[in-house]
């Protein structure tokens, strides 16, 4: 069984195109030593490469490729397994698309194939190849500049208001380029809900929300939006939970219209009809709803057909290294497109790397949370673009 990795990347500005044949010759020798074969396509700006061979060899070669400074924006499009090689004439073969007529270039590439069977467009690897050769989906190629182009400058304004207070920590949601805090999340310290079992964990979740509201007034000046999360079934299992939440909001000097109740998709909602009724009660009171950890649970997009929240927070597991993963990029783009059609605000949570933020900004996300911009109780670090490197 063979392992296949397909990636695309962007040639670095300082690399002369005339050096590519020598580069490929060197790579071909290295690949052959690991029993790796494949084909490298170049269109003048982007590389597209199919690597095939034993898993250990392919992973070793791909690790070296990712570390190579002669290209950047390396995005893994596919990692899969196959019974035979698609391209096996050499350790690596270069195919410069600029040297071929557009009407016949695809067939010219396919003629390089070495499969025992006729190459068809049904093969996933060849579908990726065809898309690249025909220059389709270019609108989804979001190029991010090197990390060195950005500084993150801490702004102490408002940091004191977001510091921990009476067991509650505050985490801002920000629009980095707009330099604006768009919401504050209040979280009661400690894993209160997980410490109890059965219906008691839902009561603990509701108590944690009341604690968060009680300390949240000073963190949400001028009607700023406030995030408070509860376990989803709290709204069903605890009688009069919605009224309890509304009372806690008013007692804290807040108004329901500025409050967003977040419920995590990772917890199974066993009584969806009853949950839907509770969501309606929240909205009738003026409270917004967010589906958190979106993409980590079993409901996913199907939940949006039953319950249309005002916001979703995409799961951190999907966000992590999104700039390097074609599958993650496709999922995020589908989420953004769906939410755009439904007028649902998308928040990307758990941002840790500048590349993640840059790719998501290019894809159309505006609201972010994560350690890249702030830690609990700390100043927001706003991105500043360096004019010259």
From TrEMBL:
InterPro entries referenced in this protein's UniProt entry, alphabetically: Acylphosphatase-like_dom_sf, BLUF_domain, Cyclic-di-GMP_PDE-like, EAL_dom, EAL_sf
Cross-referenced SUPFAM superfamilies: Acylphosphatase/BLUF domain-like, EAL domain-like
Protein name: Diguanylate phosphodiesterase
Residues annotated as domain BLUF: 2-93
Pfam families membership: BLUF, EAL
Molecular function GO terms recorded: blue light photoreceptor activity; cyclic-guanylate-specific phosphodiesterase activity; FAD binding
Domain EAL: residue ranges: 122-389
